[in-house]
Please model this.
Amino acid sequence: MTRLNGKTALVTGAAGGIGKETALLLAREGATVIVADVQDALGADVATEIEKNGGQGIYLSLDVTDEAAWTRVITTIEEKYGRLDVLVNNAGISDRDVLENTTLETYHKVIAVTQTSVFLGMKAAAALLKASGTGSVINISSIFGASGGFGSSPAYHAAKGAVRLLTKNVALEWAPLGVRVNSVHPGFIATPMMGDTDTTPLVDVTPLGRLGRPEEVAAAILFLAGDEASFVTGSELYVDGGYLAR
Ligand code: NAD
Model:
């Protein structure tokens, strides 16, 4: 597979779930993939799996809330590969409670990991993405970036809503520079993030009648990453089994 031949891609939160499947898929399509996460052992395993599959991948430790860490990672990518064509801002965490029971500390933490990280990532990678000629940023939002969901997880909804509009804002600035910026909005996907959540009510509100698989989100990210999506920017792509069609 060669849809991303010659491209270099950075995927955050790539030690598991959607990020891992995305890293594996982009590598299968020919990209050199930088697997970034705070779970170092699991992240290194993903890079090893990429190499075992005949692809090219390395693991770099990156706390996406840390601006200095972003600078170090981007500098390493520039020195090692000389380019960055695809940035997938995937790392994210959720709060679970209702607003009155959410502490300010939790609110700030979810915003930092899920929202501010996207700002930091695009800022750190801007110069390399502009130099790429076919730069593509995919920011992972959520169905909860465009709806109030079940009335819980206020920080997560605030963060994902912000990611949706930050994407469009930067897409406009970077369009004349040849860098595309889009958001992907998963519905309920079977990943470690689900934890011990009872998924029955989630399946019940999903028209396709099941949870999504991480590789189904990865496929949407691949489309936006590659040149087949060369006229797509500022858009939002829902991979939600029909949830938001209701
Ligand atoms: P996950 O918990 O399986 O994976 C998230 C990854 O992010 C983990 O590997 C974790 O170590 C990493 N991470 C957490 N904090 C980090 C930090 N500070 N720096 C770097 N990495 C960090 O979750 P997932 O379900 O694969 O979610 C991936 C993305 O998709 C998230 O942005 C999530 O909000 C979004 N999403 C998921 C669902 C779903 O149903 N699973 C639905 C909509 C959106």
User: Anything to note?
Assistant: Residues 107 and 155 are 5 Å apart (CA to CA).
